[in-house]
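Exercise 7b. Backbone tokens:
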């Protein structure tokens, strides 16, 4: 080996040693930089940790305060709203039920009255053979006994003439509509007296003549009574009251005469017993109409009560919705509180960097959004 080769080998060895020293120096510098960075990171974490603990305490206090305020506000609003709505609803329902009970009491009274009138009607119909002589004044007594509040005296029922009927019974012609039933009392005393005298004497010819005159007189009276008829202010017929049972029995025995008075003059012939039956039937019909009207009022009241219950159900549904919204807000607050606690726990273990602490600050919950 010559000197030139030896020099080359020495130069290469020196270069390798220099390169190795350079690499070692670089590694030392890198390690030193890492240690400085680690020391800086530790220092920053040591500075952030008290801040995190302080923020955690403030956040917990704020969460507790806001949750207490939310609960207090929700309780107050729910109590006030629910109490007011319940009081109003129950007050309305109570009033409606009182009206129902009052109407039912009136219906009971009307039913008892109808029962009494039906009993009276049965007694009258079972006494068709009763005899007796009543005067014209007895018609008013009959009206007072059977329909004391439903008749009027001396009523002008037909605007086409100035005649006034002795009595007019008010009848229902539909909803809130009234019409009159004209009733006039007639007592052809002279004609009936002649017939009675002829019958007592046994004079057949005189009886036939007296009976003929009596029938003509009754038809003439029926024609006069028909002048009181004026539809729709009155019923389509009128009543001719024959004052005694004997007179009515004599007239009623001639069916052709009764039919003629009804068809030609629209007049119904009645005696004391038959007019009582007629008036009882009218009173029964009027009370039936009144019962139907009361039943309709009760139906409307029950419908109103049902509407109040439906409104009450809607109010309860709204209250339930508010409760669900409050519960959802509380759940969201609890979730955010758990998230904060979890991140704070991570910070205690040294796993949270400065950037994470800033992100934690930005993610602080907006408790104002929890208000109901």
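Sequence design result:
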């Amino acid at each position: 080996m010559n000197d030139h080769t030896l020099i080359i080998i020495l130069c290469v060895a020196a270069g390798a040693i220099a390169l190795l020293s350079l690499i070692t120096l670089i590694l030392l510098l890198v390690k030193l930089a890492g240690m400085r960075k680690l020391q800086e990171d530790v220092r920053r974490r040591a500075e952030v940790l008290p801040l995190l603990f302080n923020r955690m305490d403030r956040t917990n206090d704020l969460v507790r305060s806001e949750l207490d305020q939310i609960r207090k506000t929700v309780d107050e609003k729910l109590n006030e709203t629910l109490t007011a709505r319940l009081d109003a609803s129950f007050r309305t329902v109570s009033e409606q039920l009182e009206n129902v009970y009052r109407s039912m009491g009136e219906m009971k009274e009307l039913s008892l009255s109808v029962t009494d009138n039906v009993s009276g009607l049965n007694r009258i119909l079972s006494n068709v053979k009763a005899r007796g002589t009543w005067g014209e004044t007895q018609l008013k007594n009959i009206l007072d006994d059977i329909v004391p509040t439903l008749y009027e005296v001396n009523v002008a029922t037909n605007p086409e003439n100035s005649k006034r009927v002795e009595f007019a019974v008010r009848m229902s012609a539909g909803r809130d509509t009234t019409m009159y039933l004209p009733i006039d009392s007639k007592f052809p005393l002279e004609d009936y007296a002649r017939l009675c005298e002829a019958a007592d004497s046994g004079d057949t010819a005189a009886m036939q003549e007296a009976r003929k005159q009596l029938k003509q007189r009754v038809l003439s009276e029926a024609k006069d009574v028909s002048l009181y008829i004026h539809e729709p202010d009155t019923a389509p017929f009128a009543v001719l009251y024959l004052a005694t049972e004997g007179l009515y029995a004599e007239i009623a025995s001639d069916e052709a005469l009764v039919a003629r008075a009804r068809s030609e003059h629209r007049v119904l012939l009645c005696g004391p017993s038959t007019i009582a039956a007629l008036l009882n039937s009218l009173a029964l019909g009027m009370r039936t109409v009144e019962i139907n009207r009361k039943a309709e009022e009760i139906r409307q009241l029950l419908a109103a009560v049902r509407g109040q219950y439906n409104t009450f159900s809607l109010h309860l549904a709204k209250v339930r919705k508010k409760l669900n919204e409050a519960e959802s807000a509380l759940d969201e607050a609890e979730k955010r509180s758990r998230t904060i606690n979890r991140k704070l726990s991570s910070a205690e273990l040294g796993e949270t960097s400065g950037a994470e602490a800033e992100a934690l600050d930005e993610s602080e919950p907006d408790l104002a959004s929890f208000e109901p």
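Instructor comment: Residues 195 and 210 are 5 Å apart (CA to CA). The first helix runs from residue 3 to 125.
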